[in-house]
Amino acid sequence: MFHTLQKTTLALAVLASLPETAAAQVAASSAPISTVTVAATRRTDAADDDPRRTPTSAYRITGEQFDQKNVHSLEDLQQLVPGLNVQSTDPADMQITIRGVGDGGGQTSGEQNIGMPSSVAIYVDGVYLARPGMLSGLNDLAWADVLSGAQGTMFGANATGGVLDLHTKEPTFVPEASISVSAGQHNDERVTAMLSGPLSDNWAGRLNLISNGSDGAVTNLRNGHNLNGARSNGARGQLLYRDGERFKLRLSADYNNSNSEPTQVLVATHTVNGVDTYLARSKAVGNNVVFGPNVDLDDETHTHILQGGASALAEWQLDSGWRLRSVTSLRYFHSAPSLADYQSVQIYSNSGFQQHDRSWSQELRVDSPTGGPVDYAFGLSYLGQKLDITAHTYYADTTLPDIWLGTAAGVTRKLDVIRLGLLRDRSLSPFVQGTWHLHPDVDVTAGVRLNHDERGGSFIRYNRQPFNSGYLETTNNLPSGTVVASWRAAPGLSSYAALSYGEKSGGLNISSGAAAQAGLDSLIIKPERATSGELGIKADFDNKRLNLKADLFATQVRDFQTQGYDAVDQQVYLLNAGAYISRGAEATVHWAPNRSWQFDAAAVFNDTYYTDYDQARCPPEILLGAKPPKSCSLNGQRVFNAPRVTANVGARYEWTTGGLKNFVSGRYAWRSWMYGTVDDSQFSRVDGYGLAAFAAGTSGKTERGEWNASIWLNNAFDRTYYKRLVNNEYGSVTGYLGDPRTLGVTLGYRY
Prior knowledge:
There is one protein chain. By secondary structure, the chain is mainly beta. The chain has one domain (2-750): Beta Barrel (Maltoporin, Chain A), CATH 2.40.170. It contains nine helices and 43 strands. The strands form eight sheets. It has a 22-stranded antiparallel barrel. Strands 1-7-8-5-6 form a five-stranded mixed sheet. A three-stranded antiparallel sheet has the order 2-3-4. Strand 14 and strand 15 form a beta hairpin. It is globular, with a radius of gyration of 26 Å.
């Protein structure tokens, strides 16, 4: 809390030192602006008219809504967007799915395997993030779109499950500044500061600073440490050059430094064939068995992540109506964890999984003049990536590892299993997409992309089942396509039918290696293919005060990229595992009956099941039994990370009294149970849960700007839930606890 006050004092001093002329300019420009409702046949929002945004299922959350709902992370975002599922322990290990389609890693053993891309693409200001953890937070956003279904035509190969498209606020030519300070239980704190304004007639700048963190919900009984928390500090700077409406250049750079203590707690142990092997081995080595939410650890996991990058976005508006756009980026991500063994005695020591990821991209795009029978865009994208990993599994210099593992005396003592992985990726993809205005009320949007992907890499393992793959290379041509027909049946009523196809990039087993039985070919993972179809309807009533959306959807995924298990070298590895189907329905309602009240509700029913997964790894309840089979069939079973029902509701009431603007709000998000690992283990089944949040606040004007104050309560009913469950050794199950009930306050000032 002391650090929070220090940061607050410094930021307030900066704001106070700004010239009075700047404040006067803001005051002059802050006169009330009346709200105007425009009814038209065609949409006039530039973001909606972008060919990237086909009229299919999408959720848009504005920056104001992020602030109002106190949402600042991807994990919080899933409480606003049904169908979105985020499993995260730290930025280096994050899985995202939309309608059950996304990251197929599954982590049956808790082992990361980063040689495979996600099916859900994340873009920030037009820049593709090669891994979800590169999105360090949701700060200073103008808006964010969550797009469902295969989106590869305009967003590239790794968008077969959907897209998170985020846009930050640009520098302004009117001076503005803000500071927001939040403090709550469990040492929850968040400080943000923003300064924006003109630098000359053509240049403007914007600077964002952020520091946040909280203690975790786990206590180490041995030393009293609070674990499972995280702290981070970041900065983002922008320069904007404008030459009227003809040319715009936006330069951005960001940096983030984070530290966390992701800590699994013991959820359960299981007896198979009359024996609880985990408890028996624990007794043999003197491990003190403690069930969550507490732990007894002789060593603790720590992760340290440095990441950042720079980008340049240039746009030209030609007199002829043509628009040209260029987006250039360079990003890096470095993770250096120190992993504990989650026991009270030392089994492993100084183990870790260090990752160093660098990516660079360039996109050129041309938009045709609008207003004719066909509006279209075409362009060319390039993406490069180099990823190095160094992993150590170092066993303690005692007799305990052999006892724990059941190996002969001295086999693992001081053993250091070293794994080195290298991944290089280059892709070049031309694309074109456009909309044919077939009739004043009928549009047909169609597009194609061909992604030429060249991927190479290697895997080396020392000291246990030694292995050296040599440098392997693979090349794939990955097509994507989409066609959407939309019909405006009446003012405020429209419908659409969409069909899309996409192929996700292949992968390489660069963190666990190949399967001994399958041979060297198992290092290479084929592309994953997805076909999506959707029928939807949208309606506005009561002068757009009531908005309704509903759709039916289905996606078939083939050559599913996920995990298998090789019993010979006891390694989890990546493979193509057949096919599954995701199908269901969703509906959303937004109702603002007057200026005071606002109601929102949304729900997704998602039936996702395997149609071809014959050689799956058996779950531990079968593997630990007598004479277990080499593999199990999951045909007809539910896909992991895919709750069948997700829903959320929210309400907000605003009123003015005594010159103050006041509000109260509440929201509730619920999701049904799901399997937490790809093997559909009953041990790692994540129970359904609901989270409620409430807030109340007030704001008022000062001579120079506006202040605000609010009180908020997250996880209001203190629901115990797990963000993730993992099958661990000998039938034990460990999990990552969600945040407990947290009461806090936020104070802010802006002008």
